[in-house]
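Posted in: Structural Biology > Protein-Ligand Complexes

Title: Requesting predicted complex, zinc ion in pocket

I'd be grateful if someone could produce the 3D structure tokens for the following input. Sequence and ligand are given below.
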Amino acid sequence: MSRAPALQPPPIHVETLGHLQRSGLLAECQVVLPTPAAGRTGGPTGEASLSGYMTLGSYKFHLRVGLPLAFPLRLPELTVLSVEPQLELPHLVGDHQLCFESETNLLLDRRDPWGIVQESLARAREMLHRLITGGRAEEFAQEIVAYWATPARIRLDCDVDATERPHLTQILFSKQVPIAVADDPFAYGQSRRERRADDLARQNAIYIPIDPVAVDPEFDPRELMKPEGIRKYIRALPEADRREVARLLGHCTQRQELVVLGVKRPRGERARVGVWFPRVRGKHPLADELAQDLAIPVALRRRDLAFLAPRGGAGAELQKRQVLIVGCGAVGGHVALILARAGIGQISLVDPDSFELENTYRHVCGMAHVDLTKVQGLRQELQRLIPYVKVVPYEEEIENLLVRQPEVLAQHDLVISALGSPTVEMHLNERIWSSTKHPPAIFAWLEPLGIGGHVLATHVPKAEGFSRGCLECLYHRPVEEGPLENRAAFATPGINYTRDVLGCGSTYLPFADLDSLRTAEMAARFALRILHRQLEGAPLVSWKGDALAFEKVGYRATPRFDAISGPFSEEQVAHVRESCPVCAS
Ligand SMILES: [Zn+2]
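-- Reply #1 --
Done. Output follows.
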């Protein structure tokens, strides 16, 4: 039988470990170079390491310094092999690896591998010193979620509010296997692909807030892996909470029980860790002072919006805001997805059209929902990616919706229109301005062949009333009795830029996905500024693209296009028309 030869560690690794051995930073050093068997027993094949002793106060740490194959692009791995006298330490993960530094914050000088090893050992020494001179309980409480992940043999999704008082929550089972613990199974169900929880069996579980550091300065999280250890911290709760725990435990009477502990941390909010009692005989192990039931640590993976949204830069405060998107084509599709990712709670979609194969290369949904309405397809896509967004579908023309349900505008915090139809948009603009109860609106539209796009904000409230300037203001009649023209236009008005591939009903304006994405991004930025009340006036912003393809086919750009020197133009009042019949009255 042949065996693949062991990878040789790079010479620089061997050299660096030799340097460390001679440096005296660690005592009784032993260099371990990989052997063919190391792949099975030790670290990954090819990884060189050194073990040695570091003495701090009365403690002697046996450390292993491993150089990952990618070193010096990656930090050395420091493992605590043993401590004498015996001591449980926080900041150890997985195989007792020491979290002495986060690589994401560091720029390593890859030309100085020895410097990296020295610096790593210095930081590890600092951390170990801090841990033996006090504050270990605080560090354990602070880092308990990471600590808990190592012994945990069960992992559950978690949407439990870490309240200051005990409360009942629910374990959710799929085919008798626990998959989650949630205060509100319905809300949890909305975040599943199935968007429901009624297929899951439920059972009560108890949430108990504890403050181990205040109770025991020698707090060691292993205590919480036994019923008597948890009972110790319950006994230290205020009397009202103790009674409440006793009462709630009366509702937890199954053969298997889950306890969620809300561990108070010195900094930041309470951590959530779980303890599973798989074989309960008689009373709940926390209700019986003598019970010594088997307890299994459960890692809880937070799945609640309050935790996830800020981690992605989304604003949890936008969860209550409702945006109406009129037109779910290329621009509207991008806008909807950007706003869902920004944390908007409700997005209403208006569009009567269905997806066609021709949409494939210029819609966020690609070819995924051909033959579905754009509203339904986009709704599925949004909820698949960001399950916390509620999508309200209107599979109809906006002009019909406004007749059927005139109050729809006032029911939203913002209207964004990307219809690509100036006539209907002028009508919508007028309707927006017809009531002080109506929200601000954003109009977004594209120019042909990548020469640009525009976004206009209007009906933005100010101290008194609304800032002047609207879509109607933009249009004028250069020739008396002649057609209306958009003064922002880049493509010379009066020319039909749509293309026709198959005859009636299949005309389209030529533009690419990047053009609609850019326009959608500007519209979404306006939207967020409006929702955060950071936008004033009625700004019109235009982005200017390359006119090469446009002019190549013989088209001419407008003087406004030629006059804009940079890639963007943002103007505040230049377009406001004193005699505007919509916004001046
Ligand atoms: Zn106006």
